[in-house]
Amino acid sequence: MPTGRLAVWWLIASEIVIFGGVLGSYIMHRLGHPEWANQSVHTNTWAGAFNTFVLLTSSLSAVLAHNAASRGDGKRAAKLLWATIGGGAVFLVVKSFEWTNEIQHGYTITSNTFWSFYYTAAGLHGLHVIAGMIVMMFVAADAAKNKELQRVENAGLYWHFVDLVWIFLFPLLYIAK
Amino acid sequence: MSDNAHAPAAPGAEPSNAHGHAAHDDKFYIRIWGILLVLLVVSVIGPELGIRVVTLITAFGIAIVKAYLVLKNFMHIGVEKKYVAYLLITMVALMVLMVGGVGPDVLRHDGHRWSNVAAKKTVEEGLKAGGGHDAHGGEHKAGEKPAEPAPAH
Amino acid sequence: MSTAAHAEQDHAHGHAHHDEGFIKKYLWSTDHKMIAMQYLFTGMAMALIGGFTVYAFRMQLAFPGMSVPGYGRVTATDYNALVTTHGSVMIFWVAMPVLIAALGNYLIPLMIGCDDMVFPRLNRLSYQLFLISSIVLIASFYVPGGAFGGAWTSYPPLSAKAEYSLTGLGSSMWLLAVALEFAAFLLGGINFVTTVMNSRAPGMKMFDVPIVVWMIIIASILFMASVGPLIAGAVMLLFDQQIGTGFFDPAKGGDPVLWQHLFWFFGHPEVYVVLLPAMGIVAEIITVFSRKKLFAYKTVLYTAIGTGVLSFFVWAHHQFIAGIDPRMANVFSVTTLLISIPVAEMVFVYIGTLYGGSIRLTTPMLWALSFIAEFLLGGVTGIFLGASGSDIYFHDTYFVIAHFHYTFFPIAFIGSFAAITYWFPKMFGKMMNETWGKVHFWGTIISFNFIFIPLFFLGARGDHRRIYDYRHFPDLMKAGMQDMRILATLALLVLLAFQVVFLVNFFYSLFKGAKAPANPWEANTLEWQAPSPPPHGNFPQGLPNVYRGPYEYSHPDRQADWWPQTEPEPTKS
Using CA atoms, how far apart are residues A80 and B26, in angstroms rounded to an integer? Predict the structure, then answer.
């Protein structure tokens, strides 16, 4: 297996346990604290669902970029990567509106341990979104010049992982009321 | 991969980007994306019914299905060397182990000759207080939903 | 303290050959050997800090209230900070960087026969993060309130609230330093694993990889798999400290026991993360110096993997009295007792290797043999603590201290000394002085036992480990108890004095030692086929081919009693 891809898989493996630590702690607390249901009704399911849609779509463009790169079409791969980065940006914008709204209504990170977990888990995920966007900017700049095309897939793998984490965060934080 | 034509493709044989499984055309990925969106809609609507079993299945069951679809079709884990899948499964299993070992102390608030008085008290007070937030409450009455945030689109 | 650290680093870097610029060559290098040296010297400098702190607080325990020469009077707050710093520095900034990062970086590319790590720049970043983490830790000594004093395990609520720990900023900087250090080793671990998977020399099959490389890889994987929850926990604890969340505060719906679980879910595999590389070093050394094939290579390997897997099932034995469910304590007692089996098996295999060998008692061999003996004592006393019934009595006494120093001292120091004395000719192209090496060895080993054997007895008599001044506790000042404390402290002073012998020997040999040949120990593994010290790119005559396993010593068909991995098979006629 190419070294870069191998390293990304190991990176993903070690990220699983980082998110696993947060989510595992959250799940245990959530099950032990039925009163948190009174807090979680205040999360905005529609914003979360829209963000899921955004991330799934950006994952699609990431995999299409990989497809283009494997055909040797660096230009198209770069364009699709920029679309993915755009998806990440939309995600962050929606998230910032959502958080602003919640904080204005008094649901801050310290108001209740449910909200502490909510902001910590989503914030940690948000940092990964930002990191993925930065990585993809470099990869896209290279791919546009038809250089280092194998990196398109590696960046995509990481992005899919960020997407996967959100797929679990969404029901845990938004749907389970 | 879903079609068996190139199932035993050997990844890593070629050093770079093209490793056998990229034979899908873009339509295939768009179809997977479509399925994912349908699942998303189901997972949002299902819990609205308010039936506990349906909520669990639609929220978490579908999350697992979505994760599987992404792993298989976007991340191509099926054509990757076997140990990659085992590695990821091991990591998830470790987390299950952690929750299993920690759960008896953290999830539960009493057990064999012990009782977590503080936790029980917060649960009780939280349930009594209802939907309001206990620390900074004030401008909100119990159960009042915050206004929908401005959608960004 | 920090000036000593810097002075030593400058000293080490003093012998620059100015062919590619000092900064480029010594500070901004991507060469795995130079990064290994950076880790090694940083680790050694941090060991001086760890040694100085233990000197200060042991003096306070033996002669309470005295003005410690070189430190001054140790106040109660100082005492807490000193103990915490000693523990965290020795584990996170000495054992980890020296055993895994320095030796892993140095040995992996040389032993598997490639020119560098697969991600050299990632490697450099890893060291830089580590250096920043060391600086953050050292800086935390000087912030208002002083360094963190909540023990290296950092249990909340003590660590979570400034009004309890009295070191609001110090505890956050400690957490930040630890988190940065973890990030550094995560990057390093990914690099190690991918390098070994993808860059082995042609002909090197899975079972031709030297045991020490296997051990470092298994340790890196253990680290990657266990550290995640603690990183998550560290973020949560940081929020508790600085923002006022209640993740570990029961009054806000959190749970302090959760931190203990997250910490030990990492903390126990961490013991094996540092143990396995030390075990690997010992395996290399005893095969070379008993001129025998390693007894049961595959057994060692599978046992190490088994130990790694089992190490995930034992963490709660640190928490038997922390309020965990007693039924869980039963489960964890059983798994803890089980894990002594594979470790004992490794020790047996090593003794089997020694059996019937023609043993050469060089300094590295003495260290390796003493590792087996001393670690055995540490392992055996662990049985008392792993069984939940007796642990309830022993918990938080000096018995625990003595036990884990009997495991960690062999791992972090005996293992490192064995490795440094063994690979010194390769690293620096000079031989170390054998006589002074043996003086250092005997002085260290004898005084080490005089420190910790009294602590076993003190612990069995109920000596609690977190007491600043025993004069306040008449029960712990009974006949002879203070004498034993004084004995341990005096032995510590002797041990520290003998480390000066090591440092002098190290730096004297570095500059004035006899020139080392490429293969002074007549060893088989690939690093000895490269020149001493190896140039950039490691193998100037071209990357080696591998024809056999690493431990073919005293083969009956051969005159020479070693058979390098690179030597082609003789053509059979």
Answer: 12
Tokens standing for residue B59: 């929220």
Q: By 3-state DSSP, what share of chain B in percent is helix, strand and coil, each rounded to 5?
A: 60, 5, 40
Domain with residue C201: its CATH number is: 1.20.210.10
pLDDT tens profile B75-132: 998 888 899 999 999 999 999 999 999 988 888 888 777 788 888 888 888 888 765 4
Minimum distance, in Å, between the CA of residue A156 and any CA atom of chain C: 19
pLDDT at C20: 66
Instruction: State how far residue B39 is from chain A, nearest Cα, in angstroms.
Output: 11
Token output for C412: 């972090």
The whole-number average pLDDT for the span C441-467 is 95
Per DSSP, what are the bridge partners of residue B114? B111
- Domain presence at residue C24: no
Domain that holds residue B60: 4-80
> Cis ω on the peptide bond leading into residue C157 (within 30° of 0)?
yes
Structure ipTM: 0.94
Residue B39 CA, chain-centre distance (Å), reads: 13
Show which of residues 131-150 on chain A sit within 8 Å of chain B, judged by CB atoms. Answer: 149-150
Q: What percent of chain C has pLDDT over 90?
A: 81
* pLDDT tens by residue, C119-146: 999 999 999 999 999 999 999 999 988 8
Please tell me which residue of chain A has the smallest CA distance to C185.
A14
Check CB contact under 8 Å for A6 and C198: yes
B80 interfaces chain A, CB cutoff of 8 Å: yes
Task: State the Cα–Cα distance between residues B61 and B84, nearest whole angstrom.
Answer: 23
Residue C162, pLDDT > 90, answer: no
What is the residue range of C262's domain? Answer: 2-12+32-529
**Does A32 sit within 8 Å of B149, measured CB to CB?**
no
> B89 in a domain, yes or no?
no
Contacts of C198 (CB under 8 A, 6+ apart): A1, A3, A6, C118
Among C32, C175, C184, C194, residue whose Cα is nearest residue C115: C32
User: Both tokens of residue C191?
Assistant: 């690099």
How far B7 CA sits from the closest chain A CA (Å)? 17
Query: Is pLDDT at C571 greater than 80 in this prediction?
Result: no
B114 backbone dihedrals φ, ψ, rounded to 5°: -150, 160
pLDDT digits (tens, 9 = 90+) for C294-338: 999 999 999 999 999 999 999 999 999 887 888 888 999 999 999
Instruction: Report the alpha-carbon distance of residue C473 to residue C469 in Å, rounded.
Output: 8
Instruction: State the nearest Cα–Cα gap between A110 and chain C, in angstroms.
Output: 5
**Does residue B20 contact residue B10 with C-beta atoms inside 8 Å?**
yes
CB contact under 8 A, C324 and B91: no
Using the 8-state DSSP alphabet, how is residue C474 labeled? Answer: G
- Provide the domain count of chain C: 1
Domains of chain A: 3-175 (1.20.120.80)
Chains in contact with chain B (at least 3 beta-carbon pairs closer than 8 A)? A, C
Contact in structure between C315 and C267 (CB atoms under 8 Å): yes
Nearest to A22 by CA among A130, A107, A117: A117
The total of structural domains in chain B comes to 1
Length of chain A, please?
A: 177
Contacts of A131 (CB under 8 A, 6+ apart): none
Residue C328 forms contact with A (CB below 8 Å) = no
- Tell me if B139 is assigned to some domain: no
Measured between CB atoms, does C268 come within 8 Å of chain B? no
* Residue C554, in any domain of the structure: no
What is the average pLDDT across B128-151?
Answer: 46
Taking an 8 Å cut-off on Cβ atoms, the answer to whether A106 and B139 are in contact is yes
Q: Which run of H or E residues covers position C271?
A: helix C256-290
Residues of B in contact with A149 (CB under 8 A): 16-17
Least confident of A155-164, B15-24, C63-72: B15-24
CB C61, CB C484: distance < 8 Å? no
